[in-house]
Design goal:
Its EC number is 2.7.13.3. It catalyses: ATP + protein L-histidine = ADP + protein N-phospho-L-histidine. The chain is an alpha+beta fold. It folds into four domains: 174 residues, Four Helix Bundle (Hemerythrin (Met), subunit A), CATH 1.20.120; 97 residues, 2-Layer Sandwich (Beta-Lactamase); 79 residues, Orthogonal Bundle (Helix Hairpins); 148 residues, Heat Shock Protein 90 (2-Layer Sandwich), CATH 3.30.565. The protein is built from 17 helices and twelve strands. Helix 3 crosses helix 4, helix 10 runs antiparallel to helix 12 and helix 12 packs parallel to helix 17. The longest helix has 89 residues. The mean pLDDT is 78.
Amino acid sequence: MKNSLKLKFICLFLALLFINFIIVGISLFNLFEVKQDTNKLVSNNYDSIQTSNKMIQIIDEESQDIISYINTKNPVFIRNFYDTNNSFHENYLSELNNITEEGESSAIKQINTDYSAFLDSLTNIIAIRDSKGKEAALSQYTEQIQPLYEGLTKSLRKIININDTAIVNQKDSMKNSISFSINTTIGLSIFLILVGLAFSKRYINKFLSPLYSLHDDIIKTKEGDFTHRAEILSDDEIGILAQEFNNMSEKIGQFQHSTFGKLLDEKNRSLAILKSISDPIIVLDTNYRIVLLNDESENYFKISQAQAVGRHVLETLTYGELFDFISNVMDNSLEKDSKIMSFKNNSTVFKINLSLIKDNANKTNGIVVYFQNITEIKKIEKLKHDLISSLSHEIKTPLTSIMMGASLLEDSELMESNTNFNKIVSAISEDSQKLLNLINNFLRYGQLESDQKLLNMSFCSVEDIINRSVDEYYSLLENKNIELRIGIQRNLTEVYVDEEKIGWVLNNLLSNAIKYTRNFGTVLIGAYENFDHISIFVKDNGIGITNEYQTRIFEKFFRANSESEGTGLGLALSKQIVELHGGSIYCESQYGLGSIFTFELPNKGD
């Protein structure tokens, strides 16, 4: 490859980098010059001013120490004087080594002379204070030390004034230097930037020209002209890309003539099947945009495919519950799922069936939403429920009268004199009660099937539910001489349930346990906490259940023994109630030894 695209861009980059280096170099040079001037201003003159101010402060403190000593004769002030003396000498030496301006040298010599005399006078003051007293020492201070103090201060102020004047004089020079540096840097930078822009524009256009040409060729091919060939304008990577594009166009053209017709026929056949389905179907992509919908979707939701395709599903179907269901399936990558929903003020009921669309790599490409219309099925279910409820209520009215009559006959004098009559009345009473229980189970089951939201939820005590259920069976337990044991874990958390319906479950399990336990047997009922569940169980040592029937006993109308009493609805009803609470129910049994029925409820009382 003679002229690699990579090499061209490297050359352009290096040229621009060279221009930047020139700008940076000039800027750094000017900054260095400004820094030198600034350092000269700050390091020399400013340091002289600072050390002079420190020496003035020191001799002020030393003068105060002498006066304080004269007044108090406290040796502490003498020690303070000599301590600050060292600091004065350090600053003096610093200034002595930093003489840069005319007049500083003579001032420094005068400071040295005056300060030496200042130190010598301290010894004289001490001697006078000790021998002649305070007044004499103060007089000596005024005549000897005060003039030296004023002379030192004057000399130091002179040094400060000299350096202040030097700083002011250097400011103008510094301003001119900075102004020149800035103007030079700006002017040269603008010039080099313009050169770089012109250079870049020329070569970038040259580099991109083959790309623009290739782009136009791709557009023509996209429109279906696979006979068009790209013009090869360079021998770099873009030229190679154009050559490969030509090869690809040629192969696509060949492929189009060989298989395109078949693929198109297959696509049209699939679309025809989809359009002919009598229930609404919508296909979405992974961004929840509508890809396809059939004729029934257009008719039911009053939308057209032209308006809907490419738009978000919520823009077309404003059903938040439906979108939540779809997004949950997509987010959790569920292969299939279904849910029953009502539309248009509950006038139509659909079973929403969702199926993910996946490619050969198992990557999700979209989702099919199938609206299965079950409105008529729901109407039939309602008719069935209404029929059962109506028949049950019609039967319960005369049955109640029969039971009341049987109860009155049991209390009459005829029961005492006629044994056969007693048996007949008892049989009527028992059978009536069984029939009443059967009707109640039908009503309860029908009620739960028709509306699974009829739960009156509240926090309840498990112990109270168990005790209320047990109270109803003490007489039956006594008749069969069955021992009842209760084992409830202490301090159980309250459960969030429909107390009445959980009572139905417990009554049914307890009734079955007593029914299938022989005389003088034992029934155990209890509850305990099991991680995030509350487990309630009923155990008996009755006849038990064979293994083949243990998986079927919760089916509607199933009875393990065809000769046993009951309809087979009790356990099915119990299972449905427990599952409506988000729990589960199961059986453990050994034939001939007894059974344990356990149901678990979510522990929501934490």
